[in-house]
Amino acid sequence: MQLNQAIESFIDYLEMIDRSKSTQNDYRYSLSKFNEFLQNKHNGPVYVEDIVLQDLEDFLMHEKERGMASASRSSMLYTIKSFYNYMCKKDLCDKNLALLLEPIKVKQKERDYLTEEEFEELVNAITSPLIRAVIQTMFYTGGRITEITNLKLEDVDLENNILHIIGGKGNKDRDIPISLKLHKILSSYLKNVRKPEVKTDRFFTTKKTGRVSNNYVNGCIRKALIKLDWDKEISAHNLRHSFSSNLLEKGASVVSIQKLLGHSSLAVTTRYLHQDKSVLNDAVNLL
Fewer Cβ within 10 Å of end Cβ, the chain: N or C? Predict the structure, then answer.
């Protein structure tokens, strides 16, 4: 079987087992890059049975030489292993070559996060009321950028103060309480910013496209950082880290933060918790 056919079969399988569209798209992207690399290497269509271990290693090395971060390459390796597990299960290949690949060591870099005061400075540096509302929702709920930009009107229950996240990462749903502060922000957005003539059920909309793109949000954040002249690497995802770190400092339990972030593992949640050195100093002095 040609590699591109096997990839399509695998994506269909992911659809069948209800993997999220986001996961399907990520897998398709990585495997398409793999197929493209092998076609260029062998100057033509590639068949699954002709692939050897060296091909897999060459592909991962190619991505490293292109400057891909270790975390992204590790994710690609995971995708390739999942793909080979599927092919072996369906008897599309004789040997699971991916099992012979060594794990990629991921360099854990601690992300910058914002205090509440810093976040207010960031908000004030953004001119768009729409983007202000988007990033405030992220900061006060810990939602992922895609979860927030994909919110529908029916997902934002201001009467019961609940934000319904539908089809989050891993295709999981969860509810996040809306704080009094965020309630005022979202109510004001609906009253003063959102255009009623926009024919879409999305909560956050632009008049032109009817939706807000992740790139647009991050672009507005970058412009604000330049205006503030900050030496911090901040993107929309850092607001999720900021949410968890500020909650921890105010005494919230790690288990509560885990549930709000939608993590299945506490180990993942701990990567989102950042402690100021002074807090750590106070902690050891408790003994």
Answer: C
